Batch of 2 targets.
Target 1
Amino acid sequence: MTETVKNRESAPVLEIRNLTQQFGGLRAVSDFNVCMKPGGLIGLIGPNGAGKTTVFNLVSGFYQPTSGAILVNGVDTAGMKPHQVTGLGVARTFQNIRLWNDMSVLDNIRVAQHGKLQYGFFHAIARSAHYQTRESQIEQEARELLEVFDLQDFADEYPKNLAYGTQRKLEIARALSSKPSLLLLDEPAAGLNSSDIRELIRLVRWIHGHFDVTIWMIEHHMDVMMELCTHIKVIDFGETIAEGIPEEIRNHPAVITAYLGDEII
Amino acid sequence: MLRRYSIQLILIACGGLLTYVAYEELLSLYTLSVLMFMGVNIILSSSLNLVNGNMGEFSCGHAGFMCVGAYVSSVLGVWLFTKDKVFGVPLLDPEWAIYAFPFIILVGGVAAAFAGLLVAIPSYKTRGDYLAIITIAANYIVISAIENLGVIGGSRGFMGMKQVISAMEDVVYLPWMPIWVFVFTIFCVWAIRRYVSSTFGKGVNAICQDEVAAEIMSVNTNKIKTVTFMVSSGLAGIGGGLFAYIIGYVNPGSFNILKSTEVMVMVYLGGMASLSGSVLSAILFTLLLEALRPLQIIKWIVVPLLLIIVMQFRPEGIMGNRELSDIFPWLKRFYRFK
Amino acid sequence: MLATIIQNLINALQWGSFYALIALGYTLVYGVLTLINFAHGDIFMVGAYIAFFVATFFLTTAELPGWAALALTIPLTMILTSMVGVALERVAYRPLRRKGANRLYVVITALMCGLILENANLALLGASRKAFPPMITEHVYNIGGVIFTDLKIAVIVTTILAFFVLHKIVTKTRVGMAMRAISYDKFAVPLMGIPMDNIIVITFVLGSGMAGLAGIMFAMSYPILEPYMGALIGWKAFIAAVVGGIGDIRGAFLGGFLLGAVEILVVAFFPSTFRDLIAFTVLLVILAFRPTGLFGVAKTTKI
């Protein structure tokens, strides 16, 4: 037991080896490598169309890679469906918020725990004792999570009626409700105003401390990335062009070229 | 305490009253049969609502599954308990029919649930209008398969179910059909409500609203789709079995697309994803059809016309996606609808 | 052997022609509105009845010779049938569209419209079948064992011509361009100054016109009319359109002929009661392997 726990601790949360994704003639991701130790807060940046979201889609199992391997907590995810990958401890948010708009906020959080329900159809119909305990646990956990995110007042509200910033927050809360070890944030600051962004930075930092979770985020707001991330990876046209701590990235010539073009230099 | 069990008490009282009224023959046979069809229609519309309303698919072949249930339970009952030209002497003592009847209906439901796989498996890859076609095709396939099964009457139909009922009445004289229709109607609505209100069943709504998010947020969408289609078609099979035993005669022609359309109309009239809406619209629709019966063929002009008008003024159906308790909050004291 | 093959091929093409023409109407409306116009099969039936009345009028009241009656019946029927289609659009679909009702409610309305057409016909004209008056005398040809009539060939040729005309309209004209634009993006098109409603009316005119054409030719080939003739053939044509890839007129055309071929083949080898069973099973298998049909483009989900 202690042995496996130790193994888990030392094993990388996410390891990607030579990942390549081909869409027809387009090579969206090419020879991508990453190895994440638990507890990091890593950034992924690159110009529009660089393949950042594709990487996230590959990690969350939405696409099957053309070649290469993705290991989540030491388990190869090849051939797995997204919900199975989520079961291994990956959760994510989306660039365009994808909440279930006609379900209450509380239900949004509850359904995201679908992977660890531990009961099936017949338990639900019979309302067995097992069902009752599990269901009340789930509800309690969901309410606690809402409270932690200061969303408890909206529990019976529909997400579509919430402010944009609150929806972003709810989506992060929903992702965390499956108790992931790796949280993928796909442009969490998109569409937020500057005060919302300040709050988002506080929120992400606080989640990172509070939830024992590795965070990997895509973001176009450089100040957010520079402030939050301990390590940043830059890709362009699917290829990794630079990586390192924020200061290195800021002055990296390849990064400046990728974002601003050759002429400037 | 009384408040908590009020719904159960009301239901038991209703069931008792229905049994008494039927036993004493206070209601005409016609009224009684209308009530029974109402029950069957409630089963059909609420089960289709699970797929078309809660899951947001567009199934237009519900009558096909009803047909499977009707034939399986009819053939099983007749084969086991009656003397028949085709199957010969009864396999079991007809006295047992009284105990076996609910199981016969359930077996029909299970068979229909497996027929539901015909639609569930393609639904992994496709949805929307393409799935609609698959359901239409499935309906036609079921009907023409039975039309080609000469052993059970083919397109001429199959009968003998009345004898099963009279075998039951010979043992204990009770109005068995009204009782069982009542029991199964309550069972179906109850099962659907429990399913959709559990976290497990809320996955169905998640699929409807955003399938990609559902799959990525750990909902096993294929499993939920399979379960939902099987539950929906299985309950339709139960409805079909009851329908067959009420009439005492089935033929494939009565389960065609027109029947599916009727069920679909009930669902959309009631409002998508509203269970109480489905129940309500099934009751209203049955009454409407019966009230307009004297018009004969004109009925089928008036009914669609009425529906078109309803759609123009209330395009979301009677209830929208709300339940009764959303409209009358005081009902929540007695019963949690969601 | 060769004769049998050619014989079956001609039969399949003729039988598939009706499916193809009706499927074109489904696919046109679907392409523009993403609405399954379930009343379309009944519009085909109405087309056949209109042809019946028009032809009877020209032959008996106006006492025109057969060829003249035919020449007048075809355009007149197509125009009148188009008007039925447009009327449905105006009365039933457009108000719902304006209200932004869920697409499925429009579909239910379409189903109800179909029922009204069927039963109104039954109520007005009675349950007796109508015999379509012969306008031209058919000639039977026998070439090397292959038996066919000039009518059969005419049906096939007309269908193919109609398809090419329609294809030209959709791909080459401004109206066609607007139709395709609407199917790509409903929200941007009105902003570009394209009159949505007019384009939709034209779509219904074209689709119903094709159904009217199918109605005349069907009535001439199988001269018995009854109110429910449109229902089954309509559902099947719809399935054919989907197998071809709904929204694509080439797909509808090929899907129609494919369904015709499957049905003719089944009847050639099995008892005719198996026709629906096997035809639908084949379609189900095709859809299982190509979920968006033969010509349909799979929609990629972006996240």
Note: The longest strand of chain C covers residues 140-143.
Target 2
Amino acid sequence: MSLIDRRRAWLPWLLLGLFALATLTGPQRPELAAWWRWVWAGGDARAPLEALVLTELYLPRWQVALLIGAALGSAGCLLQRLTANPLASPGLLGLNQGAALGLVCLLVSPWPFTPMGAWLAAVVGAAVAMLLVFGIVRLATGGLAIDGLLLFGALFGTLLGALVTLVLLIDQHALDVIRFWLAGSLAQVVPSQIGPLALVVIPTLAVALLVSRPLEILETGRDTAASLGVDPRLVLLGVAALVLLLTAAAVAVSGPILFAGLVVPHMARFWLGDRLWRQLLGSMLLGALLLLTADALILRLDDQDRLPPSLALSLMGVPWFLWLVRRRYLAC
Amino acid sequence: MLAGLWLGQPAWAGDEEAACRPVHHAMGESCVPASPRRVVVLDTGELDMALALGVMPIATTTPYQVGGFPDYLAIGDTPPHSLGVIQEPDVERILRLAPDLILGSRQRHGRLYPLLSRLAPTVFSASLGADWEANFRLFARALGKEGEAERFLAGLDARCRRIARFAERLGDPAISLVRSMQTHVRLYLPDSFAGSLLARCGLARPAPQSAAGVVRQLTNPRQIQALDGDIILLSEYAPEQGSLIRRWQDTPFWSLIEGQVYEVADDYWMLGIGPLAAERALDALERILREAHDEPH
């Protein structure tokens, strides 16, 4: 059996085609042309503005879109498999709100608000939120049941969100600075963020592929897993840590990009199949391509760059989701 | 007792009326006491103008991010009471302070005028920015200090003549006015306060900044060439809370800038809009042109 069912191989090509179409007809077109002329002429003279726009603005943005898409897609996939809930997404564990609170705390603190500092603050905020969710559920229930984590995570996220709103209402200028971030956007990406992002995301994705086997065993039931020598709690904590790393690193750069973690795993299952490592690999690739395409599409729609890519994601994702539900429903 | 109070009121009001002068302003006409002693100002621009005329207001607002009085206004040991941020002056506090004159502008506080004019005679200018000279004369009338105002403006004209001579010797350099905020970079056009100062001295501006208007906002470094000029006067709004231009300076886009950058103080170039700010800004500009003249880059 080949990796890809031939009838479903068109999916990534469709996304790539959309990206190419949006980019070649979009506001980047004159810059692409100028860059091409510059490279063709030898590229040794001082770079013209158009070439800089391409290498300093679009290229980092595309790289970040690929990394964040892969991170959010696979985080969603891991979480959906771990919770056996096809509607779970990383936002449910209070991570997004925790990251937002970290950023807002940095803004009102006396420390300078630099891109690197903001990234660290958001990662720390998300990590603290997730540790609190796990710690409180453990203390309150004596165990770490998946349902308890999801429910309390959603609840705790609401509380953190309220705190963020409170600070933003008191400090007007903080809202101006993180407005883009709160909506989830790649417009504010800075090249210096790519390094740390890649350093976290790429090794974590590799580890995630390696631990897909114990997680698959755990899916057959806690007792079966235990009898096969897989510690259910260790797998739960390990996978949760992977989800945290992937989501926090991504959210810290772009803000919460909704819908990517939810819809990508379903597309990946359709594309590569149900086995966890296949779905995970598919989620990485499709997540990367989907966010890249979504970002190119919103730039095509509004060259002022004011829209969040979540808009294009949901425009593409909602019909897909409806079609998927209908197919499943009719099949039953 | 109640009747006594009620009857007493018109007598007091009539007394006041006899001693007051009518002043025409943007919201109508107010009758202002001959020499106001308890003056409340609603913005740093009006604060600047009152101080330039030798009047220390009893209360004023402060800009919301800077949170204090602009440094260039030499305020002694007894600062005016604070009315909170410019956007929302504390009206209750104004009532308790019982002022005899309130100065402000329709652009900032027009909707508060009906309320304020019942607390004390209130004089509003129509707008801020490039109209500062007309506003200065209006408030000087309200304060009964027209002579002082004209002397002050004549002092500014003398500075302008010196600056124009330096500019001529430098070959009329195009002067760019740039202010870096947290999320965008602003170019100040001729209808802004800072722009009007350059226009007053007849200085040249770069082409992207010479069209009519107050400010132009840049958010994307691909527009960076709009801020270029022979001399770039750069100020930062709140650098400790982030400044977009610093991020741009770290990118290769900055290599496209050819002009010489001079950092200038935000408080008197941008924040304060008034004669004292104008005096400080023109002094700084004269120093910069002198420096550019003595050591050409």
Note: Residues 17-144 of chain B form a domain with the Rossmann fold fold (CATH 3.40.50.1980).
